[in-house]
Amino acid sequence: MAKTVVKIENLVKRxxxxxxxxxxxxxxxxxxxxxxLGPNGSGKTTAINCLLSLLTFDKGTIEVFGEKMTPDxxxxxSKIGVIMQNVAVFDELTVRENIDYFCGLxxxxxxxxxQYVEEAIAFAGLEDFVKFYPKKLSGxxxxxxxxxxxxxxxxxxxxxxxxxxxxxxxSRNRILEGIQELNRSGATIIYTSHYMEEVEQICTRIAIxxxxxxxxxxxxxxxxxxxxxxxxITIEILSVSQEITGxxxxxxxxxxxxFADGKLVIKCSGGKHNLVKILxxxxxxxxxxGRVYSELPTLNxxxxxxxxxxxxxxxxx
Amino acid sequence: MFGHIFKYEFLNTIRQKxxxxxxxxxxxxxxxxxxxxxxNLYEKEEIFNEIPVAVAEIKEDSVFREVxxxxxxxxxxxxxxxxxxMEEAEELLKNEDIKGIICVDDELSLSVAGNGLEQSIxxxxxxxxxxxxxIITDTAAxxxxxxxxxxxxxxxxxxxxxxxxxxxGNMDEYVQYFxxxxxxxxxxxxMTGLFSAISNEANLSAxxxxxxxxxxxxxxxxxxxxxxxxxxxVICVFISITYIVFILKIDMGDKIPIMYLSGxxxxxxxxxxxxxxxxxxxxxxxVKVGISTSFSMFCxxxxxxxxxxxKAVINQHCPVINKINPAAVISDLxxxxxxxxxxxxxxxxxxxxxxxxxxxxxxxFLLTRRKKYASI
Lengths: 317, 376
Fold this sequence. Notes:
The complex is a heterodimer of chains A (317) and B (376). Chain A has 11 helices and 14 strands.
């Protein structure tokens, strides 16, 4: 059985009247890519900062590698690598100097450090920019430098706090591939994001957090099984009568039908061949229709059904 | 580890353009302006010693001629005398080649082309000459036996004030501006120290957060950081002193090596004060910078770096402030060096400065160590 790397139990963190973390608990095993998924302000970063012993908390316990986490638990700290949400590099040091500085806080041996720095530069694809100062780097390269500074010392536990915010798609893909590569090389990953696609792509287990509460936890398949919706069918159609929607609603596995803006959206729960049965009703009644598509539930659907709201603001998508 | 942190913190500090400007370029620019302003005053004083005058002798006066010859000789002559006729003398005065015409007839008369210090000096000299001539003539006529005593009395310099040399240093007022300038650069160290503290605070900078989660002992990290800031600061102060002493050639006395030591000590106090302010409470970076700047300016004001006699006023009403005011302690250090020959007062100030630096550094560390934040 895999060892527990991080164990947080009943963590409570208050900012005056606001409860940022409300009896938050997680248990992360060695080798996992653990996703913390939640909207902005849900408490993801607060949980990470408490875990790193940067923030005080009101109640609960935090253990990392089986030890209580404190500001001077250097043994545990030496095994952790953190990629902050905000880029944390020195403006007046070059790319190589920055990586060397942060790696040197963990690795004392010069030869080992030199090797690790070169590997981190190669990992982040910064070979052509080693003598550049951070202000000369693009946003994507800067994020990659931020990651290189956090992982150069080859930590056993890597915490990435929204590392792809404001990053172009090409850099984002590179970052995500890199995280999977780090995991394959043995590191346990904690990945916080409000981008469900990213979490879905790389995480082996996911905790959904809302208003400081851990509302659901499991693999993506387990999470999707927690909700009623198994398939959403959308049909482009000019108009549809109540009689027809009534017939569709009467099908065994259909539990919700909506028509708006020329689109008929049907939600199904379980069952097989739902699409064939619905299209059969439309054909029998000689109703013309345009494009038809069927979608499996996403983590957003999971989040929507559990919390009653979208994972991301519309403008943020 | 310590050397590693020190190396990169030093590089990061010394490469900051804003810091280099305020620590290095600004004092050089200000020192140059001081020199331009006060250097001219000094030169004017040198020219002032030799006043060009013309002497037109209508009637020969050998005594007066002898006096004028003696006053236009030596290391610092009072007059530059031209003997000429009245017509040419008037032409010279018109062309402003001379400041006045002394006409030697039965009586001495003076013609000047305007009012000024040099004209007043010529006038004053003639009045004194006439007065002494009258005394000597009267004594010779009425009491010839006392003539020798009278001449001796008139020749003697009667000085009611005894001048006592305190040191070999230059006590000119304008030199104090340069001493204060060096003290100010040292006090600029508060900003270097402040930014060192901020770069170790997880709630104020992302780099601070990254440092806090690294497995490095806080004391080691902070001391390396402060040492780097101190070294950068000392380099800037040394450059300022070198520029003032060796490029501008300001006479700062003969204790130049100790002046460098004082600059380093002043930097230590500046950096530790900034670090202490930066470590207090959980205020934002802007608030801390504001407090640091205001506090430094207020200290400078109280120590007389802005208003000349403020330190004397404080000394009269609340002398303890001058003893604990960092700006006053730093400027006093340079003052003691320039004024006093013995090092007792200098050492007293140096010890005060070192104690204050130790207290600020220890206080800052105690406020920072094992720090966790309520919010980030």
